[in-house]
Amino acid sequence: MGSAFMKLCCCCCYDSGDDDDEDEEKQPLLPQDPLEYFNREVQKRRDEETNLWSEPGDPSHSERDDDRVLYGLLQARNKTRMGSTGYRRLSIGIDAMRDTRREVRDKWKTVMEHLGFTAEADSLLTVSAGASYDRMRNAPAARAMLNTLHSETSLFSSREPPPERYLLILDRLLYLDIAEDFLEKARSFYPPKDDSDEEESGLAINLPLLLARVEAMNGKGNEDEDESGGDDENLIYDEIKFQPKACTVSH
């Protein structure tokens, strides 16, 4: 006890004022555990991939309109000068589409957590672009349940088909024998809404028109963005319309 007290006194009384500047210079650019930093970066890229494709088994990323639009926006942004007005506007469209997918995923995660799968929710909901339908254990039942969730809950938008990636997730839930519980909880938390009453989730995107605009931009090749790309980028921006978010109450 005495030894510990002396160490505490020494630490408190030690004048380190002369070494403050030296300590600041020695602060590492990376965290103390570089492995933790790289793990976070890898997880960040995986999260982006998870929220990128609706069709996990589609190597072209072009089977669904929303996948094709998002891929087109990413390609258009890659050809646009970073920091330009067009680059920022394209980024708004990309972020809007990714946010919409994250909102759907967050609904699923909420239901999973209320079923008691708080620690396992992220892993159960993770589907990479390299996932295979061939490994599904009960594809017909997963398909039937996905259609039921689409028609009897508001987990998805009623205006477009549900993302195929959730087939793989439902197959996991069926294997764990919790799919029916998930369905009942989803019905309770997110009941279906009439088309006229369905709330917009922050940003509404006219996918067909936006897709046409992106394809038109890509068809022009690598022209100078400031001279020829501004009008097309303005048109793309016009298709991304801000909507006020409605408040939701957690159950």
Task: State the oligomer.
Answer: single chain
**Overall radius of gyration:** 24 Å
> Uncertain runs with pLDDT below 50, 5 residues or more?
1-19, 21-27, 221-229, 242-251
Q: Topology as H/E string?
A: HHHHHHHHHEHHE
Number of helices: 11
Pfam family, one: MREG
Region (Disordered): 18-67
Protein name: Melanoregulin
Biased composition (Basic and acidic residues): 38-49, 58-67
Question: What this model shows, in words?
Answer:
The protein is mainly α and 251 residues long. It has a domain at 39-189. Helices cover 58% and strands 2% of the residues. A two-stranded antiparallel sheet has the order 1-2. The longest helix is centred in the middle third of the chain and has 30 residues, at 85-114. Residues 1-19, 21-27, 221-229 and 242-251 have low confidence and may be disordered. Pfam families: MREG. This is Melanoregulin. Residues 38-49, 58-67 have a biased composition (Basic and acidic residues). It comes from Etheostoma spectabile (orangethroat darter). Residues 18-67 are annotated as: Disordered.
Q: Which features would summarize this protein structure in a list?
A:
two-stranded antiparallel sheet, Melanoregulin, 2 strands, about 250 residues, mainly alpha
SSE inventory with pairings:
Elements: H1 2-13, H2 20-25, H3 34-50, H4 65-78, H5 85-114, H6 121-124, H7 139-152, H8 165-175, H9 179-189, E1 203-205, H10 207-218, H11 225-238, E2 240-242
Antiparallel strand pairs: 1-2
Helix pairs in contact: 4-5, 4-10, 5-9, 5-11, 7-8, 7-9, 10-11
